[in-house]
Amino acid sequence: xxxxxxxxxxxxxxxxxxxxxxxxxxxxxxxxxxxxxxxxxxxxxxxxxxxxxxxxxxxxxxxxxxxxxxxxxxxxxxxxxxxxxxxxxxxxxxxxxxxxxxxxxxxxxxxxxxxxxxxxxxxxxxxxxxxxxxxxxxxxxxxxxxxxxxxxxxxxxxxxxxxxxxxxxxxxxxxxxxxxxxxxxxxxxxxxxxxxxxxxxxxxxxxxxxxxxxxxxxxxxxxxxxxxxxxxxxxxxxxxxxxxxxxxxxxxxxxxxxxxxxxxxxxxxxxxxxxxxxxxxxxxxxxxxxxxxxxxxxxxxxxxxxxxxxxxxxxxxxxxxxxxxxxxxxxxxxxxxxxxxxxxxxxxxxxxxxxxxxxxxxxxxxxxxxxxxxxxxxxxxxxxxxxxxxxxxxxxxxxxxxxxxxxxxxxxxxxxxxxxxxxxxxxxxxxxxxxxxxxxxxxxxx
Length: 446
Hints:
The chain is an alpha+beta fold. Helix content is 60%, strand content 12%. The protein contains 19 helices and ten strands. It has helices spanning 6-42, 54-68, 75-90, 106-119, 137-140, 144-147, 150-154, 159-184, 189-200, 203-212, 215-220, 224-236, 240-256, 258-279, 281-297, 299-307, 309-312, 314-318, 416-445, and strands spanning 330-334, 337-341, 347-350, 353-360, 365-372, 377-381, 384-385, 390-392, 395-400, 403-411. The strands form two sheets. It has a five-stranded antiparallel beta sheet with strand order 2-1-5-9-8, with no helix packed on it. A five-stranded antiparallel beta sheet has the order 3-4-10-6-7, with no helix packed on it. Strand 1 and strand 2 (337-341) form a beta hairpin. Helix 3 (75-90) runs antiparallel to helix 8 and helix 14 packs antiparallel against helix 15 (281-297). The protein is globular.
């Protein structure tokens, strides 16, 4: 029979074996990362866009390698810092001077117009007069895409600098989103870091950020990984945390790039159906409630955008006669007389407000303003409200009585769709918070 003294010796050998096994397990993701980085560097060319800096990529690889071998207590902080460094490395070409070599520079004008609106005191302009014939930019394009440019605008950067800073921060936050998503799906610190690296240097993501410059689609990557991971976890188990992350990330996708949310839902539908069928009804219902909450929280934006889409659709507006050729911005028309253009000093344009001083002849006239007649415009004559401006060929017309008058056109939230959206979101926010507190109270009682 074996002696009793052999047992502790065998137990003592287990700890070194486990330590050696953990060391070997860390080598695998490190090797995968280094091989992938080598392939990416070898296959990268600067012929289409600005080529990357080998020194920056090598520094990011070194930071990630150090994080993969970090001790247990520091592993979380190391993974976070390394993911941020990798995200910065994936977008470091934006730090170079000059215009970014991207396709969708149209967003640059939106950021410029938003910065100009902030300069006159309008932090959330419902109507921006500085783009074309004026437009409610935040109504038909995800408003979060321009709000994320605030750091650059407030820092005093030029529109180009604000756009590049937003895209650069998007690189960093996208990598951190991939890191958090992997953790949410149950991966360890090292595995999550490898996932963040893979997401940061995914070819399509790099093309969206650094080649296309598609602002909405790029910012969607801040929420896509978390939304996908939270949806899968919510379908598996009824955790309040997972449902809350799903609701918030889905709301972020609505306010940045709604099409990304749609494609994500289509791609995840088979997996979610399998998870829901195997997990049972409670888990599936919690996922539906999270989706409903996300829709309700963002109803203030998408409900008017959907209900009033005819007015923001290029195809629909092009069917209407524009008659723009050789027409002044504002003119007074009266029967039997040619239109009289207003002197530029007699009218002013600000975000959401147009003011003009006019003098109509006997019999009155009408003020024609080449500003698009969207729902939400209200007219007043000498401070007294009048009927909403008429739509003449897509632009606004206000009836003016005889004599000298002060005309004001204001753009606001007073349409049925906007009021309904605000009510839904205004009710959803406190109800959602109350639901979280009730769920937490139930957990404590258990």
